[in-house]
Specification:
Layout (H helix, E strand, L loop, with lengths): L2 H6 L7 H11 L3 E14 L3 E3 L2 E3 L3 E3 L7 H13 L5 H4 L13 H13 L2 E11 L9 H12 L6 E6 L9 E12 L1
Parallel strand pairs: 5-6
Antiparallel strand pairs: 1-4, 1-7, 2-3, 5-7
The structure holds zinc ion (ZN).
């Protein structure tokens, strides 16, 4: 039907309710997000993973406090709402983010998720690093990440692998997926 005919039909003014229904139809009920990050081990700095400081002779260098897991979670959340990535929001070249607590980045991503009309349901992660062993610290990391994200610890997956055959022994890598649902 030609467009002008549609608008000439009697009783066809688009009501606010119709607009609301249309907007709600366009907004997906669920969204997934994926984040990936890597940082290089450097001697003489604290090792922070998932907001927890782990005893180790090396830490992760680079952007902010180098918390590879919080960075990947932040990017997964931002990706789920098709937002700008962590590097765009918090450029490593900006001196104000030097040694910054990565929880600041995560909080901003969660704020944007809420503004977009979503909430975090659960997240799953896989860390890839040669040392230290994550198993003994997994519960502490899970508890802290859950606290930072405002979800139950039972909704936070923390897994770790060693980089067999990957040649990435000097780095820590984090992969994260998140599920959001409409609020
Ligand atoms: Zn990072």
């Amino acid at each position: 039907m030609p467009l002008d005919l549609v608008f000439k039909l009697p009783n066809y003014p688009i009501t606010k309710l119709q607009i609301l229904i249309r907007v709600q139809t366009l907004k997906p009920e669920f969204r997934i997000g994926y984040g990936w990050d890597s940082h290089e081990f450097k001697p003489g700095i604290p090792l922070k993973i998932g907001g927890v400081t782990l005893a180790h002779d090396q830490g992760l260098g680079g952007h902010s406090d180098g918390d590879v897991l919080l960075h990947a979670i932040t990017d997964a959340l931002l990706g789920a709402i098709a937002g700008p990535d962590i590097g765009a929001l918090f450029p490593p070249s900006d001196p104000q983010w030097k040694n910054a607590d990565s929880a600041v980045f995560l909080r901003e991503a969660l704020r944007r998720v809420k503004t977009a009309g979503y909430e975090l349901v659960n997240l799953d992660s896989t860390l890839i690093l040669s040392a230290p062993k994550i198993g003994p610290h997994a519960d502490a990391i899970r508890t802290r990440v859950a606290e930072l994200c405002g979800i139950p610890a039972a909704c936070v997956g923390i897994k770790a692998k060693t980089p067999e055959g990957m040649g990435t022994d000097k780095a820590a890598i984090a992969n994260v997926v998140v599920l959001l649902k409409a609020r």
